[in-house]
Amino acid sequence: MSDRFILLSGCSGGGKSTLLEELRRRGHTTVEEPGRRIVEGELAKGGTALPWLDLAAFARRAVAMALADREAMRGHPGYVFFDRGLIDAAAALEAAGAAVGLAELAAGHRYNSRVFLTPPWPEIYAADAGRRHDFAAALGEYERLVRVYPMLGYEPVLLPKVPVAARADFLIAQL
C-alpha cells in the first residue's frame, strides 16, 4: 500500500477535477482522471472505447491506465493525488458485467486508506462532450462507489460542499 497515493472519487460532476487543479496550483503532484483522458483520445480519433458506446472497453482501458499511472508515480516523493483511479475503473468494469476480480485487484494495488468522495452536488453538475450521462446516472455511480470502497477496506471521507480553496484545506487537514 502507498499511503502517499490519495484518491479523489465520488459523484461525477461533484468537483473532483476542480479540486485536483487547486491541489496542483498549491504545488502537489496530481494525476488526471483516466476516463477523461480516454474519452479525449477516443473522440479525437473517432474511437469507440467510450462509456456511452462500449462501457466494458472503456473501463478496461481505464484499469490499464490507472495501473500505469500508479507505476509512473511509484518513486515520486510526497503525496500524489489521483482523480479517480484503479478502484473506480475496476468497479465500472464490474458494473459493465465483466469478471474483473475487483477485490483481488484492489488488494494488490492499495491507495491511502482514506478515500475522499465528492458528494452529489446538482448545483454544479454539468454535462459536456466527455460527460454525456445525466445526473441520475451520476447518482447511480456514486451509490455504487459508496458501497465498494468500504467493502475493500477504505475509509470514505465525504468532502464538504464549500468553495474549492476550503475544500482543499479540508482534504489536507484530514491527511
UniProtKB/TrEMBL annotation:
Gene3D superfamilies for this protein: P-loop containing nucleotide triphosphate hydrolases
Domain of life: Bacteria
InterPro entries in UniProt: NadR/Ttd14_AAA_dom, P-loop_NTPase
SUPFAM superfamilies in UniProt: P-loop containing nucleoside triphosphate hydrolases
Domain NadR/Ttd14 AAA: 6-167
Protein name, as recorded: Putative ATPase
Protein source organism: Shinella fusca
